[in-house]
Known about the structure:
The chain has 14 helices and 10 strands. By secondary structure, it is an alpha+beta fold. It has 2 domains: 2-46 and 291-432, no CATH class; 52-289, no CATH class. A 6-stranded mixed beta sheet has the order 3-4-8-5-7-6. The protein has a 4-stranded antiparallel beta sheet with strand order 2-9-1-10. Helix 1 (2-11) crosses helix 12, helix 10 (292-323) packs across helix 13 (394-425) and helix 12 (339-372) packs antiparallel against helix 13.
Amino acid sequence: xxxxxxxxxxxxxxxxxxxxxxxxxxxxxxxxxxxxxxxxxxxxxxxxxxxxxxxxxxxxxxxxxxxxxxxxxxxxxxxxxxxxxxxxxxxxxxxxxxxxxxxxxxxxxxxxxxxxxxxxxxxxxxxxxxxxxxxxxxxxxxxxxxxxxxxxxxxxxxxxxxxxxxxxxxxxxxxxxxxxxxxxxxxxxxxxxxxxxxxxxxxxxxxxxxxxxxxxxxxxxxxxxxxxxxxxxxxxxxxxxxxxxxxxxxxxxxxxxxxxxxxxxxxxxxxxxxxxxxxxxxxxxxxxxxxxxxxxxxxxxxxxxxxxxxxxxxxxxxxxxxxxxxxxxxxxxxxxxxxxxxxxxxxxxxxxxxxxxxxxxxxxxxxxxxxxxxxxxxxxxxxxxxxxxxxxxxxxxxxxxxxxxxxxxxxxxxxxxxxxxxxxxxxxxxxxxxxx
Length: 436
């Protein structure tokens, strides 16, 4: 069968030239369209490093000073602190809440900052350009609430959270630890230098956590958690309550069933509930605000439209070519070829043709990729931190996307060939040879 396929392709090389050229162009276009889509889908589905499915975010706002519901007495330092403590107590008593923290902003929130960290060793400090910095309150149980795990060389979550996280304390991901201290394990004698402090105070590493992502569409595992002081005025500010629900509770159902209770219970002093949403919804909202979700949707729509048109185009070309081969196929049928053998032969020819065209198109795109690089996602991840995933490894990236593009090309060729081949195979040998 394979020898017959090669013989047919060679004898029909001129008539297949247009389809062959079309498949080469389609390979190049598939690379252009699918590369970023594949990277984007990888980023959004990659492990974030924490329990996304068990987190509820409650955004707490404070009444405006000119609001008729504003409580002047509750606005005092003592009144604000009391209202804040009551707010946390009532939130902890909400049904199915396993743990809770109150922060300025949570993961995938809007209160993070980026910046470098310095050790005083210039050769090492130049390695990491930007790190996502998350400031938390001293008594925060941020690790246990999000379900973030520590590494084997780090103190446990319980040990880290057993004492307040000060302004000169920091928790880093294992990737940061490896880059700054590649030959040392544990947290002993590891610190950064606060360049804004007059005496260059040390910011001590008190914990090392497994890699996690602070943004859903940014692959960098360069995340640091640092303590932040609480001052009297902070009790009057808006805050985010981060709830970790008990295992097995469906977050969306929980919010739907308890939204009225949450809104009522957490209306204390000048505090009121501005919004309640799951962590997944918060990620979607942030992606929407950043323009990521719209761009991804458009990209996937274009990719889907491209594939549909590709199948239609290949089907049309193959149908036209197959129609001219009815007498030839009639001869094969008259010599005992089965319908299934005829279909397999035609599909085999398209597969071989698509494979050769893919190899040529892939090599052509490789020249472009070597000169201009491959897709790195919606943001330049290297701006934050060297990314060790396959996306940032040129060889792995090219091979993985090439295999996907090849699968798409072959699938379209097979689908585009199957229907006309099946149609032609049903023609009886007598009818196929009538005009010969």
